[in-house]
Amino acid sequence: MMTASPGSLADRTLRLLRHPVLRRLAQAFFVAFLLMVFAFLLIRLIPGDPAMILLGDEATEEDVIAYRKLLGIDGSIPSQFGRYVSNLARGDFGVSIRSREPVLSIVQKRLPISLWLTVTTIFMTVLLALPLGVAAALYRRTWFGHAFQIGASVLVATPVFFSGLVLILLFAVQINLVPIAGYHAGFPANLYYLWLPALTINFVLVPVLARILQSSIVETSSEEFVEAAIIRGTQGWRFYWRYLLRPSLAPTVAALGYFAATVVSYAVIIEIIFNLPGIGMTLVDAVRNRDYPLVQGIVFLSGLLVVGLTFMADLVNGWLDPRAKIR
Amino acid sequence: MLPVIDAANLSLNRREAVGIVGESGSGKTMLCRSLIGTLPRHGAGIVSGTVRFDGQELAGAPERVWRGIRGREIGYIPQSSLAGLNPVLTVETQLVESITAVGSLSRQQARQEAVALLEKVRIPRAQQVLKARSHQLSGGMRQRVMIAAAIAQGPKLLIADEPTTALDVTIQREILSLITQLRQELHMALILVSHDLAVIEEVCDNVMVMYAGASVEAGPVAALSKAPRHPYTRALRVSRVDRAVPGQDLEAIPGDAASVGSWPAGCRFWPRCALADEACRRDSQPALMPIAQQLSACIHAERMAELEQ
User: Could you give the CA distance from residue A207 to residue A217 in angstroms, rounded to a whole number?
Assistant: First the structure.
């Protein structure tokens, strides 16, 4: 029933290895490895020879060979992979074809803007979805609950490029509350540029998250232990937090980790609409310019970010809901 | 609107133990829930009648009044309390929360009090159990913790709704004797719900038999077991497994229990009753009438002897 006695060193090591946090970490590393392979295959799977495509028909044989070397696509596939992995291990992500700047330094310059967008968005998501989800659960049989259902469906079905433009029209053009587009680095000044893009993404995220929270609270409220708590005389904030909200948070936090990850892909659209020079915009430019090393680097590094965020969400969940650990 | 209970009578004195017995769907749990004011959660309510506790009228009382009753005056061990503990909280959190609901204790004092409570319900290694969560405890342990939570605020009345249903037979005995001991130690009155007459005979002074939302017989346990005055009570008694004679068929109650929404007209037990006649089918559900040492809702209470052949 309780934790067994310490046992031998081997036993303890085995138990440590089975520790849920370590298991999740191992999973995260495995996903990161798949990501690395995927980013590697990205260039290689494109039909045609990237070097030839980039240089055009007029290119000499020597130019093409030199270019292949630059892209890291010379030699056999296994030897390419070996070089690719050892380069990554040394933090060498290659050089942008367009600007000849190292991929890593480009990402280092652009990623913070997208990260700030992500953080602002998720902060806003939590701030809006939590009270909305709780209210939608508690008042689901009233007009508020019905209005919430309808409003949520409409918002989820609205594409961000449309709601983004509507919000720009409203806040930037009509009432002049924010700049139409652009960005200046530095906290907290950057929030001035970020809150409208974040709000735009939240037009999709908040309804979904609030509905997940609503349905898990509704589900929790029919649990035996909720009535048992009422019967014992538990009341006030303790009742709402301990017996309704906390046991319901697991799906919401898991979804939040996933959403944080999707913000990275929303960034592609949002950064273009709001002219934010983040990683999403860089990615679109890189694709347009056939800047393969840059695309590969961005895909890998932003993917790594997603893996990290999901891992963090899992950790938070383990702390919030001990049931998650034993599964 | 669907009537679930329409003719239930239950009264008990301080320190008295009353049992409620009846088949599933007879309204035992709903009756108990109405004593603790959580009917609305089940989409139900009290339409008429009274619930009096210590002279205070509780039927239709506002939530504010109920909060002073639940846990403090009336402790309740809910049915299927195996799922009654919050899986994300430790036992300590849930016990301390009940303890600190009355009086102002420091964290340390409340903790000691929680240990004392667990010891009171005969849980060994109380310190460890305090740190455990629901899934780490066995069914019997969970039930003991639920009992500890129910008595944490020193209630005057303890309601135990089928406290042994989901447990195996040896644990059932332990839980029953624990409830009996606690009742004496803490001078509590007890309402024990069960579908097993044997359990109630063991623990209670008086018993009330329910059938299809109505009290059909009530009185001292000894009187009802020796000379039942309602055919349903008798049927419950003779169908008991522990009375079975080897080699002989166990007597069963013919037909199915009347379910909510399809009660028969007249006395609700008549389709399953050997004494039933025209009057039983015609008149409405009879009220409890005194006969011998008990109360019976059978118009043929005098003719019980005929059933013995």
Answer: 15
- Across A42-70, average pLDDT: 80
Per cent of chain B over pLDDT 70 is 99
- Every domain of chain B and the residues it spans: 17-204, 210-308
Domain B17-204 classified CATH 3.40.50.300?
A: yes
Whether A233 sits inside 8 A of B71 (CB atoms) is yes
With an 8 Å Cβ cutoff, is A239 touching chain B? Answer: no
State the number of CA atoms in the 13 A half-sphere of B193 facing the CB: 27
Q: What is the largest CA-CA distance in chain A?
A: 84
- Taking alpha carbons only, the member of A225, A255, A212 closest to residue B135 is A225
Instruction: Check if the beta carbon of residue B72 is closer than 8 Å to that of residue B153.
Output: yes
Query: What is the distance between the alpha carbons of residues B235 and A41, in angstroms, rounded to a whole number?
Result: 78
ipTM at complex level: 0.85
Residues A210, A214, A217, A219: is their CA dihedral positive or negative?
Answer: negative
Give B-chain residues touching A320 at CB under 8 angstroms. Answer: 88
Instruction: Find the residue in B nearest to A220 (Cα).
Output: B86
Nearest to B135 by CA among A223, A248, A2: A2
Whether the CB-CB separation of B214 and B297 falls below 8 Å is answered with yes
Instruction: Find which of B97, B134, B143 to mutate to test the A interface (most A CBs within 10 Å of its CB).
Output: B97
Instruction: Answer whether B86 sits within 8 Å of A229, measured CB to CB.
Output: yes
Among candidates B136, B101, B102, B95, which has minimal Cα distance to B117? B95
CATH 1.10.3720.10 fits A110-326, yes or no: yes
Q: Is B173 on the interface with A (CB under 8 A)?
A: no
Query: In the prediction, which pLDDT does A6 show?
Result: 54
- Of the CA atoms within 13 Å of residue A26, those in its CB half-sphere come to 8
Query: At B208, which helix (H) or strand (E)?
Result: strand B206-211
Query: What percent of chain B shows pLDDT beyond 90?
Result: 52
Domain boundaries, chain A: 19-89, 110-326
Per-residue pLDDT of chain B (309 residues; tens, 9 = 90+): 888 898 888 989 999 999 999 888 888 989 999 999 888 777 888 888 899 999 899 988 898 999 889 999 999 998 866 788 999 999 999 999 888 877 778 888 999 999 999 999 999 999 999 999 998 999 889 999 999 999 999 999 999 999 988 788 888 889 999 999 999 999 999 999 998 888 899 899 999 999 999 999 999 999 998 899 999 999 888 887 777 778 888 778 888 888 888 899 999 999 999 888 999 999 889 999 999 899 999 999 888 877 776
> Do residues B151 and B186 touch, judged by C-beta distance below 8 A?
yes
Question: Residues 138..167 of B with a Cβ closer than 8 Å to A: which?
Answer: 138, 141, 146, 149-150, 152-153
pLDDT of B297 reads 93
Q: pTM of the prediction?
A: 0.79
Q: Which residue of chain B is at minimal alpha-carbon distance from A228?
A: B84
Query: Any CB–CB contact under 8 A between B78 and chain A?
Result: yes
* Nearest CB partner across the interface for A225, out of B83, B137, B141: B83
